Structures are given as C-alpha cells and as structure tokens.
Amino acid sequence: MNLILKEYTDFLKIEKRHSPNTVEAYARDISRFIEYIGDLPLATVDSANIREFLLKCREEGQDSRSTARYLSALKSFFKFLCDEGHREDNPAEMLESPRQWRKLPGFLSLVDVEALLACPDPKTLFGVRDKAMLEVLYATGLRVSELVSLKLDDVDLEVGFLRSLGKGSKERVVPIGAVAREAVQDYLLMARRVFLKEKTAHELFITRRGSKMTRQGFWKTLKGYAVKANISASISPHTLRHAFATHLLERGADLRSVQEMLGHADISTTQIYTHILEERMRDVHDRFHPRA
User: Fold this and answer.
1) Looking at domain 110-285, does it have CATH number 1.10.443.10?
2) pTM score, whole prediction
3) Does residue 225 have an active-site annotation?
C-alpha cells in the first residue's frame, strides 16, 4: 500500500499540480484510512467501510468540516485507483459530505449593542444623525448599502415600516421599532434640515454638506463609536445585521420571518443562524429534563 500511496501523491504533485501542503494533507488523510482498514485490500473496500471510518472520525471529535475533508481525499484517492486499473469502481463516489453550516460571522452581544447605541452625542447634529442610522440598522437588519440608499419616501414613521431595495432589486418591507422611529424623527426635525440648508436630497441620511452618505463614511463612523464603546470584537456595519438576526432568534423569532426581514432569497442562507436555535433547545433540555 505504501507504493500505491506514493504513486498517488506523485500524481497529485505532478499531474494535478497541488501545493505541497495539499499533497501532505491528502496523504495524511489517506494514510489514516489505510491504517483504519488494516489488512483489508483496497480492491475490496466498499462504501460501508468508508462510512464506518467517517463515523469513527466523528465519534473521535472531528467536526463536519474535517470529516468532509476526509471524504474528499478518499473520493480523489479511489478515483485515482480506478483510473490506474487497481479498481473498477469508486466506493466513495456516491457518498455525500456531512452538511456544513457556513461559519456565522461575528456578532455583538446585547450589552455591546446597547453600549454602541449609547455612544452618539444627542446634543450634536452628527450625534443625532448617527444615532438614527445605528438604531435603524439594528432595528431592521438592513445591509449598509441599503441603509445609505434609503429615500425619504421609503420610510413610514407613522405606520412603523420601511421599504428597502435589496440584492437583485428585490423589494421588501421591514418593521421599525419604536426606538428607531423616534431616533429618525429627531434626526428629521433637528439635523437633516440643517445639513441641507438650501439644497434638496431624496436620500434619508445625508452628510453635513447635504450629499448622500457613503458606505465607507458610515463604516468609518461606526468604527469610531466601537472604539468609544470599548468593543474589542471586530466590527463592521454587517455586524449589526448579524446582531439583529441573532437577537431575534434568541428571543423566539421563527427562522422564516427572520429570512423575510433579512431579504434572503433562500432560507438556507438564513440557516447560518440555526446554531442559536440549537443552543436554545439544549438550554431548555438542560433546565427541564429530569435526566439532564
């Protein structure tokens, strides 16, 4: 088997032109599988043997990403054996990789969010505007591009909803909470008209020169407030979007409603937050099950 493994790694280096690190990783994974099957000839390995190996890896604490990597290496290895005439079939070909959730981007705790939202100075025009922008972002889960593109006509403060044009020009309606509505009202009455002077603008949020706010400008402002709030975590406008979704789910919101508010075309995109639901179920189980 050592000879076959060497042939395989040479194939990866020379024909597939994989990097040394990739070749080493594949060789390590295949070596572990060979060690697992012991004296069983590679020609007689079947899908059940591979499944048992992957299951053992999971039982030993390997996560789904590592297990998927093992399967990928085995698919490549057995395909090589077929191409070289050592086997007639690839027993790993029809096996599916364990489902991997995309890594959840960083989000802020409720304490951090409260500290951040308290940073803008309500005694200054900039503070009034920034407070409104932060409150709207956290209250609605908008993307920063959607936030800075909001028009005056997109926001209905009386009803408590705003209309946003998201990816693919898909329009959605999102509710605004009472705190965000009040912050926007204060901004409209106190700051926006001063920024405009004699100008006109369709955009809701504008700069002191009366022009549209930019994504980069708001990002810079946000980072300044994060420093002021002593938030150590890396932060971006998208961080508040993730906090919006996370905090809703933590308090019992259903995934489908959060999907609609975030503007995700496919619920699988929203399912990066599923771990929150799993943690809540585990907490309920630990607290109430008699054998927990």
Assistant:
1) yes
2) 0.60
3) no
Is residue 171 pLDDT above 60, yes or no?
Answer: yes
Give which of 103, 102, 106 is closest to 234, Cα–Cα: 106
**Active-site option among 75, 129, 143, 192:** 143
- In the residue annotation, 247 being an active-site residue is answered as no
Residue among 192, 241, 242, 247 flagged as catalytic? 241
The residue with greater pLDDT, 267 or 20, is 20
Asked about 36 being catalytic, the answer comes back as no
Residue 101's pLDDT is 45
Residue 254's pLDDT band (cuts 50, 70, 90): confident
- Residue 35 to residue 237: CA distance in whole angstroms: 49
Answer yes or no: 242 catalytic.
no
Residue 143 falls in the annotated catalytic set = yes
158 within 8 A of 223, measured Cβ to Cβ: no
Q: Is 38 left (phi over 0), alpha (psi -120 to 50) or beta?
A: left
Which letter does DSSP use for residue 210 in this model? S
Concerning whether 208 is annotated as a catalytic residue, the answer is no
Mean pLDDT, rounded, of the chain: 86
Residue-wise pLDDT for 63-95, tens only, equals: 777 888 888 899 999 999 999 998 999 998 888
Q: Which CATH class is domain 2-83?
A: mainly alpha
Domain boundaries, the chain: 2-83, 110-285
For the beta carbon of residue 44, count every other beta carbon within 10 angstroms: 10
Q: Report whether pLDDT(103) > 60.
A: no
Q: What percent of the chain has pLDDT over 90?
A: 46
Q: Do 110-285 and 2-83 fall under one CATH topology?
A: no
Contact 124, 249 (CB under 8 A): no
DSSP labels, 123-146? TSHHHHHHHHHHHHHHHH---HHH
Distance of alpha carbon 107 from alpha carbon 234, whole angstroms: 9
